[in-house]
From TrEMBL:
Compositionally biased intervals (Acidic residues): 142-164
Organism: Ophiocordyceps polyrhachis-furcata BCC 54312
Keyword Transport: yes
Keywords associated with the record: Cell membrane, Membrane, Transmembrane, Transmembrane helix, Transport
Protein location: Cell membrane
Signal sequence coordinates: none
Protein name per UniProt: Uncharacterized protein
Pfam family of the protein (one): CorA
Family note: Belongs to the CorA metal ion transporter (MIT) (TC 1.A.35) family.
Length: 498
């Protein structure tokens, strides 16, 4: 049963229980504090699957870590031969995020964006010298800026790598976006969990019961202990479980045992040529093709040793994962269109409405990616921190094309769904109008007969026509009916003869 409006207070309370925020509390999560400045943070822990890839044009090394091993590994300096590093974290755990934030100098607001799963798609630039102003060290920052300006005057012809080397290690770009993937329904979190189940999962230690049936009885890996990706209807959803379950049950994908999963992805591009990506649960979808490219000598990604190009490749992989959505929904609407054209019914309009609701939600997640990609393409100011290389800007145009293609296709599918709903109601309305026209025609045909019947049915004593027999009635009724039909069908007869 759906909740009524009087339960809105409970819904709002449940929606805001993820981080237990207090009005007026310090914004962000401070990596220098054990609890990040929030009492609930230490309990937000889950065993993560962490991959660190160091590579140069000649060599690539891939390492896998759990939480504690990765935290210890971060204290070691990067090998001299490694020109670029990619840190890929599958799972959101405060101890891992705290270690990365401390080592890379990530701002506490950026850390909050990673853990806040109701965030918007955006790109932020952060320069460490900017934070000196906040803490009253304006003079030092001014000196650093003057030194940078002097270097700019002397080295106008330096390439992008030389430009990036002048920035402090704590300059970075942070990207936040959504990943949409079509999965088998069994691989997606559906009605068995609440919208905030991820954080309920993180607040308790993992157990063997969290692993799939096939994995029980053996030592669980971090991946088996991570919660499955959430369905599209559960991402940024309300706390009304009945509504969410109904939307999942009535989805057009449900009869095909399919579902769309959604999860938030956060990517950091730091000035020391490092890319750090955080996934909620399904990093393998992106990691597999990326590792293949990095392991192959001679690829653009491997030869460039450019972290900004690595970020572009991550964005491209995330966007490409959404391409099958257009194909799947095109097939579904194609089948539904045939049903509408052959046997329209009101139940089909219900399915189309649910389809429009899903497409609207996907568009709400995908359309802001255009702005994010454009922001990266047009980011050329060295004063804003990390510089996006010219090669990366070139390939970002391809990502933008894919975004536009996907959004345009979804817009067309949405318009087609709306047109089909209009066609259903117009067809049903036309059918009803035709039925009313036929009833009206029959009524008009029998109206003279009704008059004649009423005439002969008068209860008068002196009525000579009543003594002439039934043939007299039909002698009057049949010619009258024939004449009425001829008059009504005059236009049809004339058009047939012409």
């Amino acid at each position: 049963m759906f909740r009524s409006i009087q339960h809105s207070g409970d819904i709002l309370l449940q929606r805001h229980q993820d981080f237990d925020p207090q009005p007026g509390a310090e914004p962000g999560f401070d990596p220098d504090l054990p609890d990040g400045g929030h009492a609930s943070m230490p309990s937000l822990s889950v065993p993560c699957e962490i991959t660190v890839i160091d590579f140069s044009a000649e060599r690539m090394v891939k390492r896998h870590f759990d939480n504690q091993a990765f935290i210890a590994f971060l204290q070691r300096p990067k090998d001299d031969w490694a020109c670029c590093r990619w840190i890929n974290v599958n799972g959101l755990s405060w101890d891992v995020l705290q270690a990365v934030g401390s080592q890379k100098g990530l701002h506490q607001l950026a850390l909050e964006d990673v853990m806040n799963l109701r965030n918007r798609t955006k790109a932020d630039w952060c320069v460490f010298s900017f934070f000196h102003y906040l803490f009253g060290e304006a003079d030092d920052a001014d000196d650093a800026d003057d030194a940078d300006d002097a270097d700019d005057d002397d080295d106008d012809d330096d390439d992008d790598d030389d430009d990036e080397s002048r920035y402090p290690n704590h300059a970075y770009i942070v990207l936040t976006l959504l990943k949409l993937v079509v999965h088998q329904k069994n691989d997606v979190q559906t009605s068995s969990a609440s919208p905030s189940s991820l954080f309920n999962f993180l607040r308790r230690p993992p157990t063997q019961a969290d692993a799939p049936e096939s994995e029980k009885g053996r030592r669980p890996s971090p991946t088996t202990l991570l919660p499955p990706p959430r369905s599209l209807h559960r991402f940024h959803a309300s706390a009304n479980e009945a509504r969410t379950a109904m939307m999942e049950r009535e989805s057009l994908l449900a009869p095909r045992n399919m579902a769309v999963s959604a999860e938030q992805v956060s990517i950091f591009l730091t000035s020391d040529n490092t890319a750090v990506s955080f996934f909620e649960a399904s990093a393998a979808d992106v990691e597999r093709p990326m590792v293949t490219r990095l392991a192959t000598a001679g690829t653009i990604l491997r030869a460039s040793c450019d972290a900004s190009l690595l970020v572009q490749a991550l964005l491209d992989a995330i966007v490409d994962l959404a391409l099958p959505l257009t194909t799947v929904y095109s097939d579904l609407l194609g089948d539904l269109e045939l049903d509408v054209l052959t046997a329209p019914s009101i139940s089909q309009s219900r399915s189309l409405y649910l389809c429009i609701a899903e497409i609207n939600k996907m568009l709400r997640f995908l359309q802001p990616v255009d702005g994010l990609v454009n922001a990266l393409r047009h980011h050329r100011s060295p004063d804003d921190g990390v510089v996006v290389s010219s090669v990366t800007r070139t390939y970002l145009a391809d990502v933008l094309d894919h975004c536009i293609v996907i959004c345009d296709a979804l817009q067309q599918l949405k318009q087609s769904s709306e047109d089909l709903i209009g066609l259903i109601f117009n067809t049903i309305s036309a059918t009803q109008n035709e039925s009313m026209r036929q009833l009206t025609t029959v009524t008009i045909i029998f109206l003279p007969l009704t008059f004649i019947t009423g005439f002969f049915g008068q209860n008068f004593t002196d009525f000579p026509e009543l003594h002439r027999g039934i043939w007299y009635f039909w002698a009057c009724a049949v010619p009258t009916a024939v004449a009425t039909v001829l008059i009504l069908m005059h236009d049809m007869i004339y058009s047939c003869r012409s």
